[in-house]
Every structure is written in structure tokens, then in C-alpha cells.
Amino acid sequence: MTSITDAALPYFSPEKTSLSLSYSAESGSRPVDAVIFAGVSLVLGTACRQLFNGTRVPYTVVLLVIGIVLGSLEYGTNHNLGKMGHGIRIWNDINPGLLLAVFLPALLFESSFSMDVHQIKRCLGQMVLLAGPGVLISTFWIGSLLKCVVLPAAHFSI
Q1: How many beta carbons lie within 10 A of that of residue 24, not counting itself?
Q2: pLDDT of residue 126
Q3: Confidence (pTM)
């Protein structure tokens, strides 16, 4: 008779993952650091949204710059950001599929909820033109450019 611990489990045990072992053993970080980083990021995002609301600077660009600065400070200064740095490193090693599955529905909902229906009705023809034939034409020209200029010796068969 096999015990429950010997059976194959459909998930990974937190004690056996390389992520938890590498962070807890080497640097003393904990999963709480990832939550702290996420909370600080939400506060920074909210503050940027409020500060740059009436300006011509898109707040997404400001968030990009803040992310680049925080990442550069963490990876360029021998890990001097403390718990924030540990959180950055934990979030850096997250599975991209999981990140997409968790955040994409919320982002799509927010974007669709804040859409202006009248603006979409006015621009529907242009959107369909760019989404259909525009993508096909762009794909053809980029593929032709790659085949003729960048990779002339490569042989492609369709």
C-alpha cells in the first residue's frame, strides 16, 4: 500500500522548487518579499496615474521608466534594494504563462470597461482595415525584406 506522500501529486511542493530554495538559502528572501514588491508597485502605479492625469505624459511610459530604474538599481548595484530587490528577483523568475493567465483578464476588462463606444464606431473601418489586410501586407513586406536583405543565403521552402 502506498502512502499519500509517495503518490504523484499534480503540483510541485514548495520545498522542492528551485526558486524557493535559491532565494531562501542564498539571500534570506521570503515569498512575503514578492507581495511587498507587488504592493509597492500598485502604490507607485496609482500615484503615477494621479500625478500624470492632466499632463501630456502617458502614465504607462512613466511606469516603464520606473520599472527600468528599479530593475537597473537591483541588477546593477549588487542587490542593494533589500526586500524590494528580493521581490524583483522573485517576480523576474515567475513563469510567463502564469503571469499572462493572471493579469491579462484584468487588463482586458479594464481596457474594455474604459472604452468610448462612440469613438470605436467612428474608427471601426480603419480598425478593420488595419487588422485584416494591413497585417497581411506588413507580414509580406517584412518577410520579403528578411529573405532578400538579411538572410539571402538561407533557403526557405513553403
Answers
A1: 15
A2: 92
A3: 0.55
